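Assemble and predict.
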Amino acid sequence: MEQFIGYIIVFGIVILFMAIAIYNRATEAAEFYVAGRRIPAFWNGMAVAADWMSAASFISMAGALYALGYDGLAYIMGWTGGYVLLALLIAPYLRKFGKFTVPDFIAERYESNFARLVALITAIIISFTYMVGQIAGVGIIMGRLFGVSFEVGIAIGMIIIIATTVLGGMKSITWTQVAQYIVLITAYLLPVSILATQWFGVPLPQFLYGQVLQNIVELETQYGITPHYVEPFHKFNLAQFLALTFVLMAGTAALPHVLMRFFTTPSVRDARVSAGWALFFIAILYLTAPAYAAFARFVILKDVVGKPIDQLPAWAQKWAETGLFKVIDKNGDGIIQWAELNIHRDIVVLATPEIAGLAAVVGFFVMAGGLAAALSTADGLLLVIAAAISNDLYAKMIDPNAPEKKVVLLGKIAVAVAGVIGGFIAAQKIAFIVQIVAWAFSLATASFFPALVLGVFWKRLNRQGAIAGLVVGLLVTIAYIYLNKYQGISFFGIQHTASGLFGLIANLIVTVIVTMMTPPPSERIQKLVEELRYPKKIHEV
Amino acid sequence: MDKEKLEAYHRENIRLITVLLIIWFLVSYVGVLLAKPLSKLTIFGFPAHYWVSAQLSVITFVVLIFVYAYAMNRIDQKYGVEE
């Protein structure tokens, strides 16, 4: 019976999203990609928030905080502070530029189709990496829901993701995402608000978890667990904390699938305000995540640790089936110790309602929210991949006379292929969701961030400098991820998740040197860069 | 439109961006650099370093963007470059 309610809640919501998608489906290219530029700032902000908040924010972030304590706050600040860079340095200017995609901007600004090719390969790499994280999130939820392994869960998730994206385009997605935001934020707030009411009588976990942090420290002292949850710099050193925060911020500002949303606003003014609304809606979840993590840690310390191992409740068995939860009684005393508990970080958010003994419905609702988060982001990412292949590569570089129907169809095929490949990679369980996603941000930081910001603010920057910098930045980042994760090499204690910092530095050095050694860009481009500064049309360029 | 006025508009934009990014830097990076000393204090029942990074920074970011949007829209009108 309980299982049945779970199916109804989770699939009811997926079907609702599909219905909205079909109702608003798009066939023309301008409709498919940027919704005819008619989306008002408030709703666009909400759609950006849903698009943005992925499996990483919803499913994985509080789990990272649960495991990392204070150090996990690098994720919180990084993924919100980036919007300041986006709103001040990039979004309004790209809106003024007025095309469909980031590769469009790169190609025009750097006067070359080769730049477009480099940009669209970069966009595909970034979006694809990010998408693998989303598929992993859907896999975990499906695994728990159907009582199957993570891998089978992924296969189910992949089909759902491809179906929702292929059915519509950006317009359908904008309104689907408004619905998805409402579902995901409600689902996220529900369990922590119930717990806050039970413990403090007020449903405001965001303001009350200070008390819980103190309780955690007391329990940790009692069990002899050190270092404490709130103690800074024990999982990350200071350099890693700062580097990760910066990489996530710069990556946020330069992520192609997020930037694309600012092409959908009716004016430059709306682009600026949209960014504010987007962060407002995002902040509601990000202010709650540390509370969620603290509640989870507290409940596990209070209700699981120190209890007899043979009296583990039913949830433990259900999560054990996914292969993501284990308890091994290492010292054989029949009592669960903190160190004997192996909870995969990415199940913390989904399992907390059950662990805290809330009604099963709450747990299913949280799963539906996680699904909404993963699906909405995967949609947006697949769309970038589709746009890169059909609009940028095919329609602009291979066959400029291709009929629009054919271009849209090609985009849909690209979605399906990318989804399937992503599923196979996600099944390898190479890292936690937030880590896979952090790679995508590192790549964006080292490639698009300087190409966009300098492209807007530095008139002298030319094609040679930008392309050389972008390529070097990407290569350095990928090399550092590999060297750190698989060879254990690190500089200043900076980990693979923040590898983009080295890529960015290399990019800037190469960009500046190469630009100064080669001639400035044409008169027309210098005019174009000046033109980006003004919301109103000043010159014809 | 005359060139000087356009240049002045751009300078005003850059000045505003600089001021807001300094605040952005203070609440995030400087807050983290001060985490050790701040951890001795308590704000609203939170360890102060935790509160600064988990709440003050995020709320400030939201405010900064709306301040920028509001101020720029006024500057646009002042120079007559709004759409």
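Chain A touches chain B through 49 residues (CB under 8 Å).
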